[in-house]
Amino acid sequence: QVRLWESGPGLVKPSETLSLTCVVSGYSISSSQFWGWIRQPPGKGPEWIGSLSHLGDVYHNPSFKGRLSMSMDTSRNQFSLKLSSATASDTAMYYCARAVDRIGVALFDLWGQGTLVTVSS
Amino acid sequence: DIVVTQSPDSLAVSLGERATINCQSSQSVLYSSDNKNYLGWYQQKPGQPPKLLIYWASTRASGVPDRFSGSGSGTDFTLTISTLQAEDVAIYYCQQFYSAPHTFGQGTKLDIK
User: Fold this and answer.
1) Rounded CA gap, A72 and B90, in Å?
2) Which residues of chain B have pLDDT under 70?
3) Cα–Cα nearest to B20, from B39, B37, B46, B41
4) Which residues on A lie below 8 Å from B38 (Cβ)?
5) pLDDT at residue A65 in the model
6) What pairing do the DSSP bridges indicate for beta strands B30-31 and B39-44?
7) CB–CB contact B48 A48 (8 Å)
8) Does A33 have pLDDT greater than 90?
9) pLDDT value of position A25
């Protein structure tokens, strides 16, 4: 059974860096083209953050304006997100997910359960 | 950015009846090179991540019941649930995956009347 789960601090102080890791089990991340991060503020719709592949291709949502960094560690079968200069507007449920192969970088068919990150002092 | 707008924001339908949700994009998501609409639909139940229902505007994802169907092209799309079941109570989102930032609609909350 394929599982994704997100890990990282649930509370981040303003101006600090929000860091999350997605661990994948039951499936090699090298077997799919793209993996991504999506967030969802409380009571709102999802927002695509970015997608990356094991071949080094990375796509960012331009609205994150250079604050975003994503990386992949195939030896640990995991990928990571770093969002610098966090503000209260970054408070959201953060999901990692697998993109559907041969369809696009940002259509996702398998999701983690999500982790709630609150940005507050 | 492509803006995706859903209507209505909420609706209530009787069990066994048809539910229809609309999605409009601010520009066409029909890719001319493959004649496919880069539009998907998701279902989200409380406390769960979104679940992919439909892609290419009308192709059901694996395991999705055939009472769910998608239609439309260009900028106007529809998700139809032919006979509403109790387990279909959820928020439904459309998403364009034509171009970054791959925007989602604001969601439509579906309840039982």
Assistant:
1) 33
2) none
3) B41
4) 104
5) 79
6) unpaired
7) no
8) no
9) 96
